[in-house]
Amino acid sequence: MVLLFPVCFTYYIQPTPLAKHASCLIALFLMVVIGDCLNLHLSSQVSAMGNCLSLSSSANALSISKKNKASLPIDNIFKLPSPLPTWPPGNGFASGVINLGGLQVRQISSFNKVWATQEGGPDNLGATFFEPSNVPQGFFMLGSYSQANNQTFFGRVLVAKDDSGGALKKPLNYTLVWSSESSKIKQDGNGYIWLPTPPDGYKAVGHVVTSSPNKPSPDQIRCVRSDLTDQCEAHTWTWGPGKEKDDNGFNVYSLRPSIRGIQSQAMGVSVGSFLAQIGGVTSPLSNIACLKNAKSNLSSMPNVKQIEALLHTYSPWVYFHSDEIFLPSSVDWFFGNGALLYKKGEESKPAPIEPTGSNLPQGGSNDGAYWLDLPVDEGAKERVKKGDLGNSQVYVHIKPMLGATFTDMAIWVFYPFNGPAKAKVELVNIPLGKIGEHVGDWEHVTLRVSNFNGELQRVYFSEHSGGTWVGAPELEFQNGNKPVAYASLNGHAFYSKPGLVLQGSKGIGIRNDSEKSNLVMDTGLSYSVVSADYMGSAVVEPPWLNYCREWGPKLSYDLAEEIKKVEKLLPGPLKSAFDKFIRGLPSEVLGEEGPTGPKMKNSWTGDEV
Predict the structure, then answer these.
(1) pTM (2 decimals)?
(2) Distance CA 351, CA 342 (A)
(3) Among 165, 278, 366, 522, which has the minimal tally of Cβ within 10 Å of its Cβ?
(4) What's the pLDDT tens digit per position in 306-319?
């Protein structure tokens, strides 16, 4: 039932005759009682009526309905805080079109909604399915787009144009993968998800979603010639009818190339479409593919001036905990303030290190033959441990990703020392002595930027031996489009939000505390681009980057003894659980030995995760 009535309220507090404001008081009472059932359809007209305000709708009234829908995150469209700058000219970066070798592709961010459900999937909020709109003349849709409703809308999908003849063909038919007709879920009508049947020698790279049981038109989508496609895999779970993924039921996943990185065979390109499948997922997928940069064309990658502009626009702000004493420094500051190179078998004769690391052994492997350490003098050692934020510098690695449709800018931060860890055991916080300490610490954040327009898509935050990608809508920004990163106390893991992250489970774990404090670094003020293979001789790698051994010695503390010290402070039932947890941590967290440098990490030539 819908009730219509004028709404009034008293806008000042002053004793007045009750009768004079009876209508206002009755209206207020009804609003309080009905509460969440209000569905306001207000026009911009607001008129004064005596001691009351009348909020006018098209019916000069307020509509109250139990059919009111709460706003979902996807109802909001994400935009970066500041407009994109005009990028410096050169090559094909940010030109809007990328040539994949016989196939031109564009990135589309405008869509028409086709079907939506309001439950199931992440946070049980449902998902929405779209098809690209405003597709330029000569370009064709390759697949529909889907996004979970628990995220701010940030849709991007590729459309393609045949640049060589025969690169694209209409599907022969469609197979109905799934329909919502029999699903008892909240939905906007019924949804139908179709898989195109490609001609011989072609592959489907996306699905078509309709709100009708009738098969889509063959003109709606194009299949791609097989030599212009690559293997892909299911990535993140987008939606399923249940609150959690059911491996035996129907699920929707985002897609990504199976092989990712800077290797010659890693030329797969994400379309932005999705996989819809009943039952378990095998990898690589056989019924759907990604695109491929068939000729390894890197002309869409940014040049030197464009890299400078990207870093000026997106260089992160890094906040350190107010109690942090082990701060970053530049590598040459570390070398110039007494760091030493040790050689196995000649431990009594450590060598000073040249500012650029020119006397460090180059290449090879981490064979334990060499390592770095702090100065021998105790005073100098304690001073160097603390780093020098004022003389810090970050080191940038630029690389093509996803078939050169994206640029990854990995921003590496060096710390002379990683401080001790602290554990949380139920309600008790316990310092872990020497556990977690090691000389040398490398952490990084990676910015992923679209080569179609230079827009920041997501940021990777390294966290000890792992890390997390965070989409642009979930980031905190400062001073325009600069994302914010928070470094954890002593351990320096990066997070997108401040607070406590517990590395563990069941109430037992390593504390990672971060906060916004006055200790902050603008990475754009002092950076050095140390590697960009695609640019050839334009970027020269410093010698220290090709040092393949550890940046700290293997520590000699007795782990068992350190655990015993901590266990003395714990009640009996927690001792064994804590012991098991600590012994299961990777050596990087335990701090038993120094880390290798950035170039030794798997992400240097591959994707982050």
Answers:
(1) 0.86
(2) 7
(3) 165
(4) 999 999 999 999 99
